[in-house]
Amino acid sequence: VGRPVIGYVENRAVLTKPAAQALSAAQADLRPFGLGLLVFDAYRPQQAVDDFVAWSKDYGDTRTKANYYPQVSKESLFPQGYIAERSGHSRGSTVDLTIVSAMPPFKPLDMGTGFDFFGQESWPDYGGATPQQRANRLLLRNLMIKNGFKPYAQEWWHFTLEREPFPETYFNFVVR
Fold it and tell me: What would the DSSP string read from start to end of 103-162?
C-alpha cells in the first residue's frame, strides 16, 4: 500500500502455537543445508485486512502498482483472489515466507518474484519461471507441506497450517 498498515505497531510475527511449532520444524529441516526461513507476514489483524480492502477500492492510489501489480488492475484484485475481505492470516496460522541462506546477509533464494507480487508470475506453478526458480519454489512448497502446511495456488510464499486451531475465528488484536 506504500504506507504503514493499520494494526501493526511492532515489526513482529505472531502465530498460533501449533503453527509456530510446525514452522520451527521446517526451519530445522533446512538448517543442515545452510538455509533458513524468512517470515514476511504471519498473523494479520482484521483491521489490517480492512485497511487493505479500503486501499484496493481506492482506484486512484496506484503508487505501488509498478512494483506489486503491474499487469493487474486494482479492480481485478478481488475477483482474481489477491485480496479478500477475510484473510487466513487473521486466524493466526497462515504465514508468508521464503527460504534464505542461514548466514548473514541471509540472502533469499531466487523465487522469480518478490513477496506480495500480484500476477501469474507469483503462482507456484508459473511456467515462465526459470528451472532454478521452479526448483526453489518446489523446495519451499515441499518443505511446508511436509511440516503440515497447505499452499495457496496463487502465491508461492503463502501457507496455512492444515490443522489450524481457529479455522472459524478472525482475530483483531494489534501486533505489538
Answer: STT-PBP--SS-TT--SGGGSTT-TTS-HHHHHHHHHHHHHHHHTTEEEETTEEEEEEET
